[in-house]
Specification:
heterodimer, A: 284 residues, alpha/beta, Rossmann fold, 6-stranded mixed sheet, 4-stranded antiparallel sheet, 10 strands, B: mainly alpha, two-stranded antiparallel sheet, two-stranded antiparallel ribbon, globular
Chain lengths: 284, 328
């Protein structure tokens, strides 16, 4: 995928491949984050730093706690313990909408297109700091019309970039699964985030669109954004990540460059161990 | 049988004060259910507070009509805050259960004998409309074709439909604003709205308060028209009439609740007049008395509404394209 290693990948080349290792320029720093559901310890992360401007892949077998960790970091779930800072500001316990406003925007594993709103309205909704979103100014269109026009122009620009401009007036519910993924990503960018959290952005998307989505993800990095994404497809993760973090049973068991992770015996045990085991069964 | 008389009766009701009051209540519900997706099953509770706010302030405390109006609206705000604070962070069904219970609690509290000094108990309150009547600028009634209203009715109609027009204007402005867009986003998927930086709880609360206040205005119009209030008027059934009106006209449309109310009252009054006349003319079997008439009226109106929903599920003003979408 990327023939030349990116600048940020080079900056991570010297970082030791150990769980919880410090990064040269972290944007997200989390410590002692735990979340239990009944007796199950879904998330038990001692330390994690995410490098600014890098694409970090978060992998792990089903039930490893990746999505729960995502939910906790973005304010959608309340952790039992834990503190984390984003861009130097403490963010633990912040409600989800304020997390988004401070520049950390997430997407969802099951896409959440706003079905009975048009594609363009989906986009325009996501702009932050809209004057017309307050009750009284909403009644006086002259107060927000200029801003609305600017937002619309920006939305159309993004739709154009994502090759969706021809869908602008369609209801989002009429989009295909892949188009919804694209819309969700484009919509997240309307928030003007510094960090994008993508929860399985390629799930249920056909191979051709996967390629285009991958291009967009690397595009985000090239625009200077930080990306943290959960993914199952190892080819995808290894292809575009600058850094990979592997979770199993709620804990971070390994991190490192894609090459280091691919060789890491802990990861192979936790993640790929099952297939090796199955091969053994077939032989017997 | 006199078709002209039946039509006159139906039209009188369709354009009458109750239709205006119900339209206001449905407009309020439209903000809750149509735009925000809040399942408020206690809209009649806001109506009750609107009606009693004026009635109690004027008759018990000797306050002015305007003070009464203010009290009505403040009570509606208080009820909305009280209902919303614990439930709006939870799943939609909690609000539904809480609102239907709250409306019944209000009705039972207002009719209970210990409340008699304040609310008149089961006897209700009357004699609070004098100041309103005194403001009447009309000196004679009106007769347009076979439609006739006396000067007092005309005054209630003017006030009622003016308030409806203002509420429609408010809906129009808000539905097209970024504020309205945020409400619709919450209706579609509140987690998505949250992930895009919208304060979902705040918007839901604003919607609940706004719809409740408009509903309370409907209660005020209703009470001023009847010039008396009785607790047992405010049955849970009324909330479902408001839902019927809203869905009949088209949820999340600007004019839907108004058109819905007019058609609803036209059908109800028209059916009533038809059955009464048929009874009087001897077309009906002997067992068909006054009790049966009431029941059959609802039955026929119910069938009519069902047919409308089957052939026009999006309501009169709704967009069928929108309804056909498989959301989620």
């Amino acid at each position: 995928m990327s023939a030349e290693p990116s600048a940020v990948a080079r900056s991570l080349a010297d970082v030791a491949p150990e769980p919880g290792v410090s990064k040269p320029d972290p944007i997200l720093v989390a410590a002692e984050v735990t979340k239990t559901f009944g007796g199950l310890r879904a998330v038990d992360v001692d330390a994690l730093e995410v490098q600014r401007g890098a694409i970090t892949g978060l992998i792990g077998p089903n039930g490893a706690g990746k999505t729960t960790f995502f939910n906790v970091l973005t304010g959608f779930d309340r952790p039992d313990t834990g503190r984390w800072t984003f861009d130097g500001k403490p963010m633990s316990g912040m409600p989800a909408h304020r997390v988004a406003r401070s520049g950390m925007v997430r997407t969802f594993q099951l896409t959440k297109a706003l079905g009975r709103m048009t594609v363009l309205d989906n986009m325009k909704l996501a702009a932050v700091g809209q004057r017309g979103e307050h009750f009284l100014p909403a009644l006086l269109p002259p107060l927000w019309r200029a801003q609305e026009t600017a937002i619309e122009a920006r939305a159309e620009g993004l739709l154009e970039y994502f090759n969706m401009i021809h869908m602008r007036d369609e209801f989002a519910a009429t989009l295909s699964g892949g188009q919804r993924k694209l819309l969700e990503m484009a919509r997240a960018l309307m928030v003007e985030p510094t960090m994008v959290m993508l929860d399985e952005p390629m799930a249920g998307v056909n191979p051709a669109l996967t390629q285009s989505l991958l291009g967009h993800v690397t595009g985000l990095r090239d625009e200077g954004m930080t990306v943290l994404f959960v993914e199952h497809d190892m080819d995808v993760v290894m292809g575009i990540s600058d850094w990979v973090v592997c979770m199993a049973q709620g804990q971070i068991i390994a991190e490192g460059t894609p090459e280091a992770i691919a060789r890491n015996p802990e990861v192979i045990d936790a993640y790929l161990g099952r297939s090796r085991h199955r091969e053994g069964e077939e032989q017997s | 049988m006199d078709p002209a008389a039946i039509l006159a009766n139906a039209l009188r009701a369709a354009l009458g004060p109750s239709a205006a009051a119900y339209a206001l209540l449905a407009i309020g519900l439209n903000f809750h259910f149509g735009y925000t997706g809040l399942l408020n099953f206690g809209q009649v509770g806001f109506m009750l507070l609107g009606a009693y706010g004026v009635a109690i302030t004027v008759t018990v405390f000797g306050g002015s009509l305007w003070l009464g109006l203010l009290v009505s609206l403040l009570l509606a705000v208080a009820l909305a805050l009280l209902l919303g604070a614990p439930t709006l962070r939870l799943r939609a069904d909690y609000l539904a259960i809480t609102t239907i219970a709250a409306a019944e609690i209000l009705r039972f509290t207002f009719r209970a004998s210990p409340s008699r000094d304040l609310t008149g108990g089961v006897f209700g309150l009357s004699g609070f409309a004098a100041e309103f009547n005194a403001l009447n600028p009309y000196t004679s009634g009106i007769q347009i074709g076979f439609l006739a209203y006396n000067e007092r009715q005309l005054w209630v109609l003017t006030v009622g439909w003016t308030l409806v027009a203002l509420a429609v204007l408010l809906t129009y402005l808000l539905a097209r604003s970024p504020w309205g867009r945020a409400l619709k986003a919450i209706r579609e998927d509140e987690d998505a709205a949250r992930s895009l930086g919208k304060n979902v709880f705040g918007y839901k609360m604003q919607s609940l308060v706004l719809g409740g206040v408009i509903g309370a205005l409907g209660g005020v119009v209703f009470a001023l028209n009847l010039q008396s209030v009785h607790p047992d008027t405010f049955l849970p059934l009324l909330t479902f009439y408001f839902y019927t009106i809203l869905i009949l006209g088209g949820a999340a449309t600007v004019l839907g609740p108004v058109a819905g109310s007019i058609v609803f009252w036209f059908l109800m009054a028209g059916m009533d007049a038809t059955l009464r006349q048929a009874g009087a003319a001897g077309y009906m079997p002997d067992w068909f008395g006054a009790d049966a008439l009431g029941a059959v009226r609802f039955l026929v109106v119910g069938i009519g509404l069902m047919l409308l929903m089957i052939f026009r599920p999006q309501g009169m003003f709704g967009d069928r394209r929108e309804l056909a979408l498989n959301v989620r």
